[in-house]
Amino acid sequence: MAVDLLLGLQWGDEGKGKIVDVLTKHYDIIARFQGGPNAGHTLEFDGIKHVLHTIPSGIFHKNALNIVGNGVVIDPVIFKKELQALEKFNIDIKSKLLISRKAHLILPTHRLLDAASEASKGKAKIGSTLKGIGPTYMDKTGRNGMRVGDLELDNWKEKYRALADKHEAMIAFYDVEIQYDLKELEADFCDAVENLKKLTFIDSEEYLFQAQKAGKKILAEGAQGSLLDIDFGTYPYVTSSNTTAAGACTGLGVAPTHIGEVKGIFKAYCTRVGSGPFPTELFDEDGATMGRVGNEFGATTGRPRRCGWLDLVALKYAVQINGVTELMMMKADVLSGFKKVKVCTAYDYKGKRITHLPYNIEAENVTPIYTDLEGWGQDLTKMGSAKELPDTLKDYISFLEKELEVPITIVSVGPDRTQTIHR
Ligand code: GDP
Ligand code: IMO
Ligand code: MG
After folding, report:
1. Between the chain's N and C termini, which has fewer beta carbons within 10 Å?
2. Top mutation candidate among 5, 18, 55 for ligand 1, by most atoms within 8 Å of CB
3. Residue 127 CA: which ligand is closest?
4. Which of 402, 395, 283 minimizes the C-alpha distance to 332?
5. Beta bridge pairs of residue 203
6. Are 110 and 142 in contact (CB under 8 A)?
7. Which tens digits make up the pLDDT trace of 11-40?
8. How far apart are the C-alpha atoms of 109 and 181, rounded to whole Å?
């Protein structure tokens, strides 16, 4: 059985958590393949809002297994808090949540290094979530990292000490003021590691291989979005993993020939949190309205998200890079108040009209060229079927499908599980 993928196509926060939760009933296994607690995936049902950071978004379904893959980086301290938030929901964590031995660990000093690196960059800072993501992936590729499987060894604390000491020397190298009490951080870390060790560790690539052979249906859940991909995103203002389809192969050990559907998810407009170029960003009342109506604040950091019109040039690029077979459009309800909606269909790039994403999309090089479409006045949040959608929204959807050459199969009209229209 092929493995399906669900990926964010913009700068993250497209609504991956909600849609994974909606789709889990069709799957046996949900597997996260990259990122870590920089992610914040929101799910809403029965009047309760849940935010997950490392745990896959299928966790609330009794019949699904959830796997944290080798490509993920885990902070035991944050993981412990996530598990505590789940305690009252009676989930059998030991059998429903499995952790790859090859997943790397975020140490307290990785978080400090992240802070030191950002502070040293001044105005050029990435706008990192400060969860230690960059330094942890650097240790992974530098072949210095600590993995979940190391915690099963008697001497894991020696390995930890050597790496943490090295990090302390590196922190001193950055000439910045960082206040911290490492003893306290380490006590929390060791306590959280003991908690993590109560969970089930697996050789996830073998587990997933056997599951595929046995005909199990598997959905790989992405974190962040394509424009934050380390190779294909708006470098250096990106995260430190491959957020695109290829990342699912390396982050789970799934062969490219075993990938099935690639479900790409996007908002009916665009948001970005953190620094970096954003051609269609709005600094006016329209942008403020999107932020207010869409409640655009980071699920992990609480920072306000920058908002702007849908950028089809960037979206097309993401569709191509990922080989998207099916699209899902989120937050159509947020644009309900707009008489006209704009879609960026080309860029003016150094005086030339282009329709592909160039190397450099900083504002001084790129001016978006917009197509205006009619807005939809009605409140969509109580609509339950595609028939009910206003004609102008149907036109918007048809316009996007024609431009992107991929069908839009889900239109989301609110944060709740039930506010999901299948087409
Ligand atoms: P993720 O990181 O891709 O899982 O997305 P986030 O959870 O960070 O951000 C998406 C936000 O939009 C969350 O607050 C969701 O509850 C909310 N949301 C998801 N779909 C919709 C929708 O269709 N309409 C509205 N108004 N909110 C939505
Ligand atoms: P989900 O999975 C939105 C952004 C940060 C910053 C850059 C690098 O919820 O969509 P990092 O902490 O990875 O070093 O930060 O990436 N970023 C996200 N933005 N959604 C996310 O995850 C993000 N994860 C990281 O804001 O600009
Ligand atoms: Mg998010």
Report:
1. N
2. 18
3. 2
4. 395
5. none
6. no
7. 999 999 999 999 999 999 999 999 999 999
8. 11
Percent of the chain having pLDDT more than 70?
100
Q: What is the pLDDT of residue 299?
A: 85
CA–CA separation, 174 vs 158, rounded Å?
A: 25
Protein residue with its CA nearest to atom 26 in ligand 2: 274
Q: Is 334 in the pocket of ligand 1 (CB under 6 A)?
A: yes
Q: Which ligand is nearest to the CA of 330?
A: 1
**Using CA atoms, how far apart are residues 204 and 68, in angstroms rounded to an integer?**
8
Sign of CA dihedral 155, 161, 163, 166: negative
Q: Across-strand partners of 310? A: 343
13 is catalytic: yes
- Residue (of 192, 34, 173, 41) closest to 108 by Cα position: 192
pLDDT at 211: 98
Place of tokens 């799934």: 254
Over range 312-329, report the average pLDDT: 98
**Quick one: pLDDT band at residue 301, thresholds 50, 70, 90?**
confident
Which residue has 């400060």 as its token pair?
130
Residue 97 host element (H or E): strand 97-100
- The pLDDT tens digits for 348-363 are 999 999 999 999 999 8
Phi and psi torsions of 349, nearest 5°: -110, 105
DSSP 287-332: HHHHHHHTT-B-TTT-PBPEEE-EEHHHHHHHHHHHT--EEEEE-G
Can you tell me the mean pLDDT for 303-324? 97
The candidate with the shortest Cα–Cα distance to 148, out of 208, 203, 185, is 203
Question: CA-CA distance, 187 to 181, in Å (whole number)?
Answer: 10
